[in-house]
Amino acid sequence: MHYLPQTASCQKYFLMIVSAYIAAVYHSMKEELRRNAPGATPVKRRGGSQASQQAVGDLSALPGMISFSQEYVASELTQNIFTITQKIQKKVTGSRNVTQTSELFPVLPGSHLPLNKPALEFVKYVCQVLSLDANIVNQVNKLKRDLLRLVDVGEFSEEAQFRDPCNSYILPEVICHHCNFCRDLDLCKDPSMAQDGSVLPQWFCSSCQVQYEKDSIEMALVEALQKKLMSYTLQDLVKVQRLTKLSPTINVIITYNPYRGHSCHQADDGWNGTKLSSLRRNDTCRIKSTEQAGNEQS
User: Fold this and answer.
1) DSSP code of 212?
2) Residue 270 predicted with pLDDT over 90
3) pLDDT tens digit string along 273-290?
4) 121 and 115 Cβ atoms separated by less than 8 Å
5) Of 54-68, 98-112, 118-132, where does mean pLDDT reach its minimum?
């Protein structure tokens, strides 16, 4: 939600749609439980065309609640989302002369997507969250198809597919200095939120709610970067092999360079390096000295 722009009330509309669906399903479930309570008069519900989808959905869900969820999404919720999407489009279109649409989206930790269509992102976010309910997948798919047509985006186009707007970087085994609680900390997806919804550059222990030491997190990041640099530097080294068949003391090092291919180098005098561009990374080569090669030819 926080990756939606606050312009045109996208975040507020998102909360309103999702909370309205949750509240409606909750009240329907309470009503269904009351009807199915011992001593209550059973109510026979007519079966609709969604019987096959009900079987695929959550078996623990009540049949009446499933039918209500499907009808609610197909009627009332669909109308509300259509109205809200049109409002967002009108507000964004009217503010284009003031600022670029790409500048409307907040830049938060982990942001990596070039977002420039608030109405489209609102549609994708809402439909992605609603589709988490397996009982209304078919209704949500139809709703998304109609909404994409409204914002003039193809159903099977790349920009119509939902992508996580937040990258993930997990720092393993972060230990709290206060309670010694250890956990993996996602620096991008586990930030602390202020009262106004803004992201604060600090993280708290999930056990004792004490703030982590920034110095320890920074040092862990520096160590992780050093390990990556070391692995990048040593990635060209393929094999170090001592070949005693050529000479009792010949040390051959096979290295790989992405620009020059494989090559062999030997520090002893009397032997020249040989280009081995046809070798693969894990190949084992047999190198013959110049004198041995001449004897075989003769």
Assistant:
1) P
2) no
3) 444 444 444 444 444 444
4) yes
5) 54-68
- Angle, helices 78-94 vs 137-150, to 10°: value is 30
Rounded Cα–Cα distance for residues 166 and 169 (Å): 10
Q: CA-CA distance, 156 to 142, in Å (whole number)?
A: 13
pTM for the model stands at: 0.66
| Beta pairing partners, 275 | 263
Quote the tokens at residue 162: 């939902």
Q: Are 144 and 162 in contact (CB under 8 A)?
A: no
Q: How far apart are the first and last CA of the chain?
A: 78
User: Please, what sign has the CA dihedral across residues 204, 107, 6, 82?
Assistant: negative
DSSP 190: S
**CB under 8 Å to 251, separation ≥6 — which residues?**
240, 242, 266, 267, 268
Where is 67: in which H helix or E strand?
A: helix 63-72
pLDDT of residue 257: 47
Q: How far apart are CA 117 and CA 286, in angstroms?
A: 60
**What's CA 80's distance to the chain center, in Å?**
29
**Distances 69 to 22, 248, 254 between C-alpha atoms, Å:** 10, 81, 65
**pLDDT above 80: residue 238:** no
| Residue 55 tokens, joined | 């079987």
- What was the pLDDT predicted at 162? 92
